[in-house]
Every structure is written in C-alpha cells, then in structure tokens.
Amino acid sequence: MRLGRRPNEKERFVGGIEFPRRTLPVYRRESTYPDPDDLRALYASGELGLMGEVTAQYAGLAPTAQDLAPYFALAAEMGVPVSFHTGFGPQMSAQRGDADFRMRLGNPLLLEDVLVRHPDLHLYIAHGGYPYLDDTVALMMQYSQVYVDISAIDWLLTRDEFHRYLRRLVDARLGARIPFGTDQMIWPDTVARAIEAVESAAFLSEHQKHAIFFRNAAEFFDLDADHLLGGPGLAGPGGTVVRATRTPLVLRPREPGARGSVTVGVESCMKSWCAMSRTLLRMFCAHRKSSTALPLTQIG
User: Fold this and answer.
1) Which of 134, 216, 217, 273 fits as disulfide partner to 236, beta carbons 3.0 to 4.6 Å?
2) How many CB atoms lie within 10 A of CB 103?
3) Domain extents for the chain?
4) What CATH architecture is 7-225?
C-alpha cells in the first residue's frame, strides 16, 4: 500500500489514508492497517495531515475496538485530526463485499469513550452521522472538538430531507462545525448537486453558507483562512504564521457562587508572537491592558 501524496498535490490537499476497509478498482474491497510508525513519520514530515477516513463500520468494528486504539492515541499525541465514517453505506453492504458491515456500528455516539480517553482528539464525523441525528447533536453539544461534514448526504438524500437534517444541526447552534464535503470519486456531476443543495437552503445566511463551504474546514484543519483568501494572514516576524490554539480557557468555580481571578500577561505574549485563541484576543483587546483579572462566574 502506497502512503503519501504526489508532489503536485501538496499545496492543494490535506492528505489522509483510508483504513481499515478501502476500495480498489473496480469496487474491489480489502482490509489493511497502516503501520503506526510509518504514519508517525508521514505526519511529522507534513506528507499527511489527516487520519482517515477511518472506515471501522465496514470492518465490523466499533470505535472502541482495540485494533483502532493505537491510531487514536497517535492522532491525539501528534495533534492530527481524524475523519471517521459514520451512518450508512451502500445498500446491502454486507452482501456486496463488506460482510462485517453493520448499521448499528455507524452511530456517532459510539465515539464517546474515545473522546473521553483522548480529550484533545480533534475529529469530524463523516456523512453527517445520518440517520442518527439526535445522537450526532448530543455528541457535538458535549464535545466541542467534534465536527460533522455533510458529504454524500448533500446529494444522496432528497433536497427536503437534506435541508431538514442540516437545519436541525444549525438550529442546535452547531453551524460553525459543519464543513462541506461530497465523498465523490466517481460521478463528478454530483459535486454540483451537493453545492446547490447548500446554496438552496433558504434558512442559511450568506455568512453561514460561506462557513460551510470554507471557514469551518479551515478552522478544523487549523489553516490560515485569511491567507488562503489572498489576505496577509496571521503573519509574524519574517513571515512566520502565527496559529491560534484550539484549547479553550475553561473557568469553573469550586462551588456555586464562588469567585476568583486569573492574571494573563498579554504584552509579553504579543511581543513574542505567541499563538492564542481568537476568543482570548478579543477579551484582551476589550480590556486594553497588558494584564487583566478575569472573574470566575458560575457555569451552569
């Protein structure tokens, strides 16, 4: 199995590898597990930037299977985002090349123990988690590092069904974690259908559509969105890109009503071009001080 990308692809794609079940021409299926040491080297070199799509469901595996544990641990350790197949597969998959495929193993909520074990794991649920809408919403509401793409469902489902599903995700205030996708490798005409499915969603603002088509994916992959759009981007001295951290500042009182403070030195961070979250930057700019005490208020 060849790992890595062609040289001319490096500026256009974030490379990943599909396992443990993958498709070879012409619809020939095989199981394979990449060597974790080989993956480590490819991620360290920048040759690959994504783990997956992890197609555990096709291999009859729950996300908690021991066969997958080394890969989740590697992704969490190296900060590599994960793409995880969820939901459904081609009709009659168990009779058409994937004997171990089971629908119940596509429920995104089965990922919860993995996320508890690896709290820094950054992961997106492929194919919208369809048809497990309630469980997808529940998982994403609890674990803010989980995104959900809309690949395949944006052209396979009827327009009304897709809009119903997408609107529920947006109404649950998850719109900033929904990147666009197509899952398309065979029929290029479906790419246009997928785009139109989002464009025709009257309940989405232009800002929300832009987020789905671009901003959400840039955020998930920790890319400099402004630079990709032709702007100056987050550049520091010598053109070095300063990236924002994903780690939120969580302040929780020891008991209801308790108060405390935390002091952060902003001026020194800015001078050294430290990466910090956009939320913190807004808080610092609002206070216009080199350091500030932030009250710890009760979190419900």
Assistant:
1) 273
2) 14
3) 7-225, 238-293
4) Alpha-Beta Barrel (3.20)
